[in-house]
């Protein structure tokens, strides 16, 4: 029997905002190399799960083990350094900086020189700056934005801003990538293109992916497994084909047209 590595293990996770139980006793295991979908109606708690995993919120209860290490309660930058990158439902970029500067800032964790070394421009400083520039340009090339490297981030069309956000997440050298509704606002053709793009990223960077998405076609095409949430609790888990047949999921989320 093949033994898979558990990259992420969430145990009995809860996050309450006053009386609102945004997540209640949530459990999830993702094996290395898999793509896992997180779906459910608006307000089900999906983004809160991303925010707790990435340290934006401290959990009320529970544990998050990433690469055999407890990360719940750690600061956001420390969690990113452990190897978790993310994109946001509402794109978050430094809109007044250039496309290249946005990626360079995200990749800053590779830098080891100190302020004095940068002030006198030591060989170490110049070497690391060059490496960071080259890495950032390579990432931009990978996502197809190399010709726009000097443009302001805010001037890019929406689809390109999404790709820039992914390049920024990749600059962190993640093992796990969290994608929050990457196909939001896309038509069917654009979402198909996004699916191929995500497959390409996965292969090139050897990533494991947790994705929140309302487009069921994207979930079906990409995910090995999915978890369906409603009111902060898991109502179903399984392959996309299994959950599409689940009466609870049809009732709470998908509606009758998905029922098989
Ligand atoms: N900072 C906060 N303060 C208070 N309540 C919050 C906060 N963040 C989220 N919530 C509440 O937690 C619940 C889950 O919200 P969350 O944004 O995680 O849902 P979601 O499944 O991501 O929804 P959507 O699909 O609309 O993005 C909602 O009731 C929301 O109002």
Topology, number of strands: 10
Oligomer: single chain
Mean of all residue-level pLDDT scores: 90
What Rg, in angstroms, do the CA atoms define? 19 Å
State the fourth-level CATH superfamily of the largest domain.
P-loop containing nucleotide triphosphate hydrolases
CA distance, first residue to last residue: 32 Å
Largest sheet geometry: 6 strands, mixed
Helix content: 25-40%
What percentage of amino acids are in beta strands? 15-25%
CATH class group of the largest domain: Alpha Beta
Structural class designation: alpha/beta
Series of secondary-structure elements, N-terminal to C-terminal: EEEHEEHEHHHHEHEHEEHH
Per the principal axes of the C-alpha atoms, what is the gross shape? Answer: globular
Integer count of domains: 2
The stretches of 5 or more residues where confidence is low (pLDDT under 50) are none
Q: Which ligands are bound?
A: adenosine-5'-triphosphate
CATH architecture of the largest domain: 3-Layer(aba) Sandwich
How many helices in DSSP terms?
A: 10
Report the CATH topology name of the largest domain: Rossmann fold
* Widest beta sheet: strand line-up: 6-7-8-3-9-10
GO molecular function, one term: ATP binding
Domain ABC transporter: 8-256
InterPro entries: AAA+_ATPase, ABC_AA/LPS_Transport, ABC_transporter-like_ATP-bd, BCA_ABC_TP_C, P-loop_NTPase
GO cellular component, one term: plasma membrane
Task: Report on this structure.
This is Branched-chain amino acid transport system ATP-binding protein. It comes from Tepidanaerobacter syntrophicus. InterPro entries: AAA+_ATPase (IPR003593), ABC_AA/LPS_Transport (IPR051120), ABC_transporter-like_ATP-bd (IPR003439), BCA_ABC_TP_C (IPR032823), P-loop_NTPase (IPR027417). Keywords: ATP-binding, Nucleotide-binding, Transport. One of its GO terms (cellular component) is plasma membrane. Strand 9 (225-230) and strand 10 (233-238) form a beta hairpin. Helices cover 38% and strands 24% of the residues. The chain folds into 2 domains: 6-83 and 174-258, P-loop containing nucleotide triphosphate hydrolases (Rossmann fold, 3-Layer(aba) Sandwich); 93-157, no CATH class. With 260 residues, the protein is α/β, with parallel strands linked by helices. It is globular and about 65 Å long. The chain has a 6-stranded mixed beta sheet with strand order 6-7-8-3-9-10, sandwiched between helices. It is built from 10 helices and 10 strands. The chain binds adenosine-5'-triphosphate.
